[in-house]
Amino acid sequence: MLKKLFTKKMSYKFNEPKSTACIVCCHVLEQSSSILYVTHDDDDGMWQFLCGESNHNEETARIVSLEQVVEIDSSINDLFEMPCGVGAERDEMNSKWKPFKL
Ligand SMILES: [Zn+2]
């Protein structure tokens, strides 16, 4: 009758390994903003997860693992099939992703 309480499995749908390095902005990492702007770079396949503010630069960028980003916001799992050279944005956390060409 023992119920395992804290074993809620995090879903992780990306094809890339969990340790894949990707870029988030400090706002997303500190969870002061939600992820609203995602790009999947055509050249190097790098994922970027930003909060949608436009004032991002090298100083606001942080390198984390893809797994960490899914832990911050598991709704980005919806983008696991997004090919390189494509980005997606949404108005708020529960909105639908709108894809665009990079
Ligand atoms: Zn940001």
Could you explain the architecture of this structure?
With 102 residues, the protein is an alpha+beta fold. The protein has one domain. The chain is 11% helix and 25% strand. It has two helices and six strands. It has helices at 26-29, 66-72; strands at 21-25, 37-40, 47-50, 61-65, 86-89, 98-101. The chain has a six-stranded mixed sheet with strand order 4-1-3-2-5-6. A hairpin with a 6-residue loop joins strand 2 and strand 3 (47-50). The relative contact order is 0.25. The mean pLDDT is 92. The site of zinc ion (ZN) has 9 residues, from helix 1.
Number of helices: 2
Count of discrete structural domains: 1
Main beta sheet, described?
A: 6 strands, mixed
Helix-strand topology string: EHEEEHEE
Strand order of the largest sheet: 4-1-3-2-5-6
Rounded mean pLDDT score: 92
Radius of gyration: 14 Å
**Small molecules held by this entry:** zinc ion
Please tally the β strands and state the result: 6
In which range does the helix fraction lie?
10-25%
Estimate the global geometry from the Cα principal axes: globular
Uncertain stretches? none
Gap between N and C termini? 53 Å
**How big a fraction of the residues is strand?**
25-35%
